[in-house]
Protein backbone atom coordinates (compact mmCIF):
# COMPACT_ATOMS: atom_id res chain seq x y z
CA UNK A 1 0.00 0.00 0.00
CA UNK A 2 1.33 3.45 -0.92
CA UNK A 3 -1.29 5.97 0.23
CA UNK A 4 1.49 8.19 1.61
CA UNK A 5 4.00 7.59 -1.19
CA UNK A 6 6.54 10.42 -1.47
CA UNK A 7 5.20 12.12 1.68
CA UNK A 8 7.38 13.19 4.62
CA UNK A 9 5.98 13.20 8.15
CA UNK A 10 7.14 14.54 11.52
CA UNK A 11 5.79 12.41 14.39
CA UNK A 12 6.32 13.39 18.02
CA UNK A 13 6.34 10.70 20.68
CA UNK A 14 7.06 8.20 17.93
CA UNK A 15 9.41 5.77 19.66
CA UNK A 16 6.82 3.65 21.46
CA UNK A 17 3.10 2.97 21.87
CA UNK A 18 0.63 4.50 19.44
CA UNK A 19 3.32 6.82 18.09
CA UNK A 20 5.58 3.97 17.06
CA UNK A 21 2.68 2.10 15.48
CA UNK A 22 1.87 5.23 13.42
CA UNK A 23 5.53 5.58 12.38
CA UNK A 24 5.62 2.00 11.15
CA UNK A 25 2.26 2.28 9.38
CA UNK A 26 3.33 5.48 7.62
CA UNK A 27 6.49 3.76 6.40
CA UNK A 28 4.44 0.84 5.06
CA UNK A 29 2.27 3.39 3.26
CA UNK A 30 5.33 4.86 1.52
CA UNK A 31 6.23 7.82 3.75
CA UNK A 32 9.57 8.93 5.15
CA UNK A 33 9.38 9.88 8.84
CA UNK A 34 11.21 12.22 11.21
CA UNK A 35 10.70 11.26 14.87
CA UNK A 36 11.03 13.31 18.06
CA UNK A 37 11.14 11.40 21.35
CA UNK A 38 12.92 11.45 24.72
CA UNK A 39 13.69 7.72 24.73
CA UNK A 40 17.14 7.44 23.13
CA UNK A 41 17.26 3.63 23.36
CA UNK A 42 13.94 3.08 21.59
CA UNK A 43 14.76 5.75 19.01
CA UNK A 44 17.99 3.90 18.21
CA UNK A 45 16.07 0.64 17.82
CA UNK A 46 13.64 2.31 15.44
CA UNK A 47 16.45 3.93 13.45
CA UNK A 48 18.28 0.59 13.16
CA UNK A 49 15.16 -1.15 11.89
CA UNK A 50 14.32 1.49 9.28
CA UNK A 51 17.66 3.14 8.39
CA UNK A 52 16.52 4.44 5.01
CA UNK A 53 13.09 5.65 6.08
CA UNK A 54 13.65 7.45 9.40
CA UNK A 55 15.62 10.33 10.85
CA UNK A 56 15.29 11.20 14.52
CA UNK A 57 16.02 13.68 17.28
CA UNK A 58 16.21 12.72 20.95
CA UNK A 59 14.53 15.73 22.50
CA UNK A 60 11.65 17.24 24.40
CA UNK A 61 8.36 18.28 22.79
CA UNK A 62 8.06 21.11 25.33
CA UNK A 63 11.20 22.69 23.84
CA UNK A 64 10.43 24.59 20.63
CA UNK A 65 14.02 24.35 19.41
CA UNK A 66 13.90 20.52 19.54
CA UNK A 67 10.78 20.55 17.36
CA UNK A 68 12.48 22.97 14.97
CA UNK A 69 15.52 20.65 14.77
CA UNK A 70 13.26 17.82 13.61
CA UNK A 71 11.76 19.96 10.86
CA UNK A 72 15.21 21.06 9.69
CA UNK A 73 16.45 17.47 9.75
CA UNK A 74 13.45 16.22 7.80
CA UNK A 75 13.95 18.82 5.10
CA UNK A 76 17.71 18.18 4.99
CA UNK A 77 17.31 14.40 4.80
CA UNK A 78 14.11 14.02 2.76
CA UNK A 79 13.69 17.39 1.02
CA UNK A 80 10.39 18.65 2.51
CA UNK A 81 7.69 18.14 5.14
CA UNK A 82 4.05 17.28 4.38
CA UNK A 83 2.55 15.98 7.65
CA UNK A 84 2.81 16.66 11.36
CA UNK A 85 1.45 14.11 13.83
CA UNK A 86 1.40 15.31 17.45
CA UNK A 87 1.30 12.30 19.73
CA UNK A 88 3.53 12.67 22.81
CA UNK A 89 1.52 12.81 26.05
CA UNK A 90 1.61 12.24 29.80
CA UNK A 91 -1.12 10.68 31.96
CA UNK A 92 -2.15 11.64 35.52
CA UNK A 93 -3.06 8.18 36.88
CA UNK A 94 -6.73 9.12 37.38
CA UNK A 95 -5.86 11.64 40.13
CA UNK A 96 -8.92 13.70 41.18
CA UNK A 97 -8.40 17.30 42.24
CA UNK A 98 -9.19 16.38 45.86
CA UNK A 99 -6.16 14.06 46.01
CA UNK A 100 -3.54 16.35 44.47
CA UNK A 101 -1.57 18.03 47.23
CA UNK A 102 -1.85 21.84 47.02
CA UNK A 103 1.92 22.20 46.89
CA UNK A 104 2.10 19.80 43.91
CA UNK A 105 -0.83 21.14 41.90
CA UNK A 106 0.93 23.91 39.99
CA UNK A 107 3.98 21.83 39.08
CA UNK A 108 1.86 18.84 38.02
CA UNK A 109 -0.43 21.07 35.96
CA UNK A 110 2.48 22.80 34.27
CA UNK A 111 4.34 19.61 33.39
CA UNK A 112 1.31 17.77 32.03
CA UNK A 113 -0.04 20.72 30.05
CA UNK A 114 3.39 21.56 28.68
CA UNK A 115 3.63 18.07 27.19
CA UNK A 116 -0.02 17.45 26.23
CA UNK A 117 -0.89 20.91 24.88
CA UNK A 118 2.21 23.09 24.46
CA UNK A 119 4.06 20.14 22.92
CA UNK A 120 1.50 20.01 20.11
CA UNK A 121 1.64 23.77 19.63
CA UNK A 122 5.43 23.66 19.40
CA UNK A 123 5.28 20.97 16.72
CA UNK A 124 2.69 22.86 14.69
CA UNK A 125 4.60 26.13 14.99
CA UNK A 126 7.86 24.52 13.91
CA UNK A 127 6.26 22.70 10.96
CA UNK A 128 3.86 25.42 9.85
CA UNK A 129 5.85 27.05 7.07
CA UNK A 130 6.72 23.75 5.42
CA UNK A 131 3.15 22.49 5.74
CA UNK A 132 1.73 25.66 4.20
CA UNK A 133 4.18 25.44 1.33
CA UNK A 134 3.21 21.84 0.61
CA UNK A 135 -0.53 22.08 1.44
CA UNK A 136 0.09 19.60 4.21
CA UNK A 137 -1.93 18.16 7.06
CA UNK A 138 -1.84 17.91 10.84
CA UNK A 139 -3.18 15.01 12.92
CA UNK A 140 -3.22 15.30 16.71
CA UNK A 141 -3.81 12.44 19.13
CA UNK A 142 -6.73 13.21 21.43
CA UNK A 143 -8.33 10.56 23.71
CA UNK A 144 -11.82 9.57 24.71
CA UNK A 145 -10.94 11.76 27.73
CA UNK A 146 -11.26 14.73 25.38
CA UNK A 147 -15.01 14.07 25.29
CA UNK A 148 -15.98 12.09 28.40
CA UNK A 149 -15.09 12.21 32.11
CA UNK A 150 -13.59 9.29 33.98
CA UNK A 151 -10.91 8.19 31.51
CA UNK A 152 -8.26 9.99 33.52
CA UNK A 153 -7.95 12.46 36.34
CA UNK A 154 -8.71 16.18 36.35
CA UNK A 155 -5.45 17.26 34.69
CA UNK A 156 -5.41 14.69 31.88
CA UNK A 157 -9.10 15.04 31.04
CA UNK A 158 -8.83 18.83 30.98
CA UNK A 159 -5.71 18.73 28.81
CA UNK A 160 -7.37 16.48 26.25
CA UNK A 161 -10.44 18.71 26.10
CA UNK A 162 -7.96 21.51 25.37
CA UNK A 163 -6.55 19.49 22.47
CA UNK A 164 -10.02 19.26 20.93
CA UNK A 165 -10.25 23.05 21.10
CA UNK A 166 -6.76 23.35 19.65
CA UNK A 167 -7.75 21.23 16.64
CA UNK A 168 -10.79 23.38 15.95
CA UNK A 169 -8.91 26.66 16.30
CA UNK A 170 -5.96 25.54 14.19
CA UNK A 171 -8.29 24.22 11.50
CA UNK A 172 -9.79 27.73 11.37
CA UNK A 173 -6.47 29.57 11.48
CA UNK A 174 -4.50 27.43 9.04
CA UNK A 175 -7.12 26.96 6.31
CA UNK A 176 -7.08 26.72 3.38
CA UNK A 177 -3.45 25.61 3.08
CA UNK A 178 -3.37 23.09 5.96
CA UNK A 179 -5.99 20.62 7.16
CA UNK A 180 -6.06 19.90 10.93
CA UNK A 181 -7.77 16.86 12.44
CA UNK A 182 -7.48 14.40 15.30
CA UNK A 183 -7.77 10.74 16.24
CA UNK A 184 -9.35 9.92 19.59
CA UNK A 185 -8.17 6.52 20.86
CA UNK A 186 -9.83 4.82 23.78
CA UNK A 187 -8.03 2.55 26.24
CA UNK A 188 -5.00 1.06 24.50
CA UNK A 189 -2.49 -1.59 25.52
CA UNK A 190 0.51 0.74 25.99
CA UNK A 191 2.95 1.76 28.73
CA UNK A 192 1.72 5.36 28.85
CA UNK A 193 3.45 7.03 31.79
CA UNK A 194 2.07 9.50 34.33
CA UNK A 195 3.52 12.83 35.37
CA UNK A 196 5.97 12.24 38.20
CA UNK A 197 4.86 12.73 41.80
CA UNK A 198 1.13 12.95 41.20
CA UNK A 199 0.30 9.60 42.82
CA UNK A 200 2.26 7.10 44.88
CA UNK A 201 0.38 4.34 43.03
CA UNK A 202 1.17 5.57 39.52
CA UNK A 203 2.51 3.01 37.06
CA UNK A 204 2.41 2.50 33.28
CA UNK A 205 -1.17 1.98 32.14
CA UNK A 206 -0.89 -1.61 30.99
CA UNK A 207 0.87 -2.56 34.25
CA UNK A 208 -2.30 -1.87 36.24
CA UNK A 209 -3.83 -5.18 37.43
CA UNK A 210 -6.80 -6.19 35.24
CA UNK A 211 -6.47 -2.99 33.16
CA UNK A 212 -6.91 -4.73 29.82
CA UNK A 213 -9.89 -6.79 30.96
CA UNK A 214 -11.64 -3.87 32.64
CA UNK A 215 -11.06 -1.58 29.65
CA UNK A 216 -12.47 -4.17 27.27
CA UNK A 217 -15.58 -4.71 29.38
CA UNK A 218 -16.26 -0.97 29.52
CA UNK A 219 -17.02 -0.61 25.78
CA UNK A 220 -19.54 -2.22 23.42
CA UNK A 221 -16.88 -3.85 21.20
CA UNK A 222 -15.56 -5.72 24.28
CA UNK A 223 -11.87 -5.43 23.43
CA UNK A 224 -8.95 -3.22 24.34
CA UNK A 225 -7.16 -1.65 21.41
CA UNK A 226 -3.64 -2.43 20.32
CA UNK A 227 -1.66 0.60 19.10
CA UNK A 228 -1.95 -0.71 15.55
CA UNK A 229 -5.76 -0.63 15.72
CA UNK A 230 -5.73 3.17 15.43
CA UNK A 231 -3.18 3.69 12.66
CA UNK A 232 -5.42 3.55 9.59
CA UNK A 233 -7.25 6.65 10.82
CA UNK A 234 -4.00 8.61 11.00
CA UNK A 235 -3.27 7.60 7.40
CA UNK A 236 -6.78 8.59 6.31
CA UNK A 237 -6.57 12.04 7.88
CA UNK A 238 -2.96 12.66 6.84
CA UNK A 239 -3.59 11.97 3.14
CA UNK A 240 -5.07 14.86 1.18
CA UNK A 241 -6.27 12.44 -1.47
CA UNK A 242 -8.22 10.38 1.09
CA UNK A 243 -9.85 13.18 3.12
CA UNK A 244 -9.58 16.38 1.05
CA UNK A 245 -12.62 18.10 2.62
CA UNK A 246 -12.04 17.07 6.22
CA UNK A 247 -10.67 19.60 8.71
CA UNK A 248 -11.50 20.46 12.31
CA UNK A 249 -12.70 16.88 12.86
CA UNK A 250 -11.85 14.21 15.42
CA UNK A 251 -12.45 10.54 14.54
CA UNK A 252 -13.14 8.23 17.48
CA UNK A 253 -11.31 4.91 17.78
CA UNK A 254 -12.47 3.91 21.23
CA UNK A 255 -14.56 0.75 21.04
CA UNK A 256 -17.88 2.58 21.01
CA UNK A 257 -17.95 4.90 24.05
CA UNK A 258 -20.54 7.11 22.36
CA UNK A 259 -22.92 4.13 22.09
CA UNK A 260 -22.56 3.11 25.72
Descriptive account of the structure:
- With 260 residues, the chain is of the alpha/beta class.
- The protein has one domain: NAD(P)-binding Rossmann-like Domain (Rossmann fold).
- It is built from seven helices and seven strands, in the order βαβαβαβαβαβααβ.
- A seven-stranded parallel β-sheet has the order 3-2-1-4-5-6-7, sandwiched between helices.
- Helix 4 (102-133) links the parallel strand 4 (83-86) and strand 5.
- It is globular.
- The two termini are 34 Å apart.
At a glance:
The chain is of the alpha/beta class and 260 residues long. The chain is built from 7 helices and 7 strands. The protein has a single domain, classed as Rossmann fold (3-Layer(aba) Sandwich), CATH 3.40.50.720.
Helix and strand layout, with pairings?
Blueprint (H helix, E strand, L loop, with lengths): L7 E5 L4 H12 L3 E6 L2 H10 L4 E5 L5 H15 L4 E4 L15 H32 L3 E5 L12 H21 L4 E7 L25 H7 L13 H8 L11 E4 L7
Parallel strand pairs: 1-2, 1-4, 2-3, 4-5, 5-6, 6-7
Helix pairs in contact: 1-7, 3-4, 4-5
List keywords for this structure.
260 residues, alpha/beta, Rossmann fold, seven-stranded parallel beta sheet, 7 helices, 7 strands, 14% strand, globular, Sc_DH/Rdtase_CS
Amino acid sequence: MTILKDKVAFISGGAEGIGRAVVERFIREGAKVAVLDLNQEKLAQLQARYPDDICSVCGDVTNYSDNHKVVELAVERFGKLDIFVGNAALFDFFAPLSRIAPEKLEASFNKLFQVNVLGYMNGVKAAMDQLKQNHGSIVLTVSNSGFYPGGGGVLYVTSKHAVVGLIKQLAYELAPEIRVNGVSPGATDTEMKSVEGISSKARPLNHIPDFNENAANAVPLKKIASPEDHTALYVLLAANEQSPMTTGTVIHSDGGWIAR
